Amino acid sequence: MNNIDRLRHGLAPAIVGVIALLAALVAIVGLTRLDGGWLLALAAVAVAGGAGAMALADRIGPATRIVTSAALAVEVAMLVYATSGHAFQIDMHMMFFAALALTAGWVDERAMIANATVVALHHVILNFALPWAAFPETGSDLPRVLIHAVILVAQTVALCWLAGRLRAAFADADALRTRAEDEGRSAEDRAAAEGRRAEGESRRRGELQRSVAAFQSEVGRLIEGLRAQSRQMTQTSQSLTSVAASASRDAEQAAESSSQSSGAVGAVAAASEQLSHSVAEIQSQIGGMKSIIDKVNGAAANAQGDVEKLTDQANRISEVVAIIQSIAGQTNLLALNATIEAARAGEMGKGFAVVANEVKVLADQTGKATEDIAQRIAAINASTRSTVGAMEDIARRIDEASQCAGGIVTSIEQQRVATNEIAANISHVASATRHVSDLSRRASEQTRSADHSTRSVVETAVQAEKATDGLARSVDSFLRQLAG
């Protein structure tokens, strides 16, 4: 319903009420002043009833507006008739203009024209047919009718123009109201949407805060785990460094011992060569019994001393071999421990595990080489014991040189063969000892390389721990910015 319809709904009862009031006034005046006034009263009531029925059927419809406007003019005309012959009759004409002004409330030019048409017909017809029913004078009064007509037309035109302007104003007001309502609904929709958006934003912020809290907890746990692993890696690397340093020292000692063993074996080889030359000298001078016996006696004494020295050197070599075997066992154990520590270190310890395995292999080779040396030394000891027996036999044979010269020759030949065998064995021992020395030096170099690698691992672990602390600070700063 627009503003004009609301105005008309409010005006309808007033117009119907005015019509009813005029009908009552006509009935009262007619019954009191006119003969047959009851007919006028019935007519007034009938007009009022018809207008009321129209209003009940269609309160503000076009027909209702036109009929009620015309009914107002009819009721005023009947009131003018009821006051005929009275001084107030001419004054009742003022009610025509008042009624016309009242019809302007319908904001309908047709209603106002209907009212004005009834008034015009009333004046024109009664002016000529029943002048006394319209004016106080008994005769017609055309100038007065014209004056009233001019005023009526002017008022009608003015009211119609006003109705048009009022209708346009109401239309603008309705448009503004509709737009305002639309904007109000849009504003409400926007407010509701903003509320929903704010609620969604609040919910998302809550979810984001919960996610940030969960993420912060998880990242904190991971960073703490990284710190613990970095510290553990640092400790393990330090332990590996200590083990590598110890292995390096042991390898250097093994190399030094191997060098000493090589020197001792060289001395034994020289002694063996000297013994061989002595036997050759004895054999070359066997032709002269006395001189040979004397020389053989001296050579035998020298040979016996050399054999004793050889025995001492062989015993020393056995001791050195035992030391090398002990060192090889310790190196093997250290390599095993290093392998275990490298396995604990995981990915960072793979390189060291390879080095430790190489050290273990070298230690095994050293053990095998020392076992071979021990076997060779045992053979040397056996040979020296045989030589000692031969020398004792030579001593006895010297006393019986004249009787058993041939036996001496045979014994000397046996001694030569044994001496050659000793020299060959000593040569093998020297070669094996040099190999052990080379292996020990290589083990020492590889152990130093492993020590350098473990120190690099320690530095990497420290840098990883620092990087973990920096990561923790960066993540904490990011989460504070995200939460803010």
UniProtKB/TrEMBL annotation:
Record's compositionally biased regions (Low complexity): 243-263
UniProt cross-references to PROSITE patterns, sorted A to Z: CHEMOTAXIS_TRANSDUC_2 (PS50111)
Region named Disordered: 179-209, 233-263
Transmembrane residue ranges: 12-31, 37-56, 63-82, 114-133, 145-164
A single GO cellular-component term on record: membrane
Domain Methyl-accepting transducer: 204-461
Biological process (GO), any one: signal transduction
Keyword Transmembrane helix recorded: yes
Coiled-coil parts of chain: 293-320
Keyword Iron-sulfur found: no
Keyword field: Coiled coil, Membrane, Transducer, Transmembrane, Transmembrane helix
Biased composition, class Basic and acidic residues, residue ranges: 179-208
InterPro entries, A to Z: MCPsignal_dom (IPR004089)
Biased composition (Polar residues): 233-242
Listed PANTHER family: LYSOZYME-LIKE PROTEIN-RELATED, METHYL-ACCEPTING CHEMOTAXIS PROTEIN MCPB
Protein name (Swiss-Prot/TrEMBL): Methyl-accepting chemotaxis protein
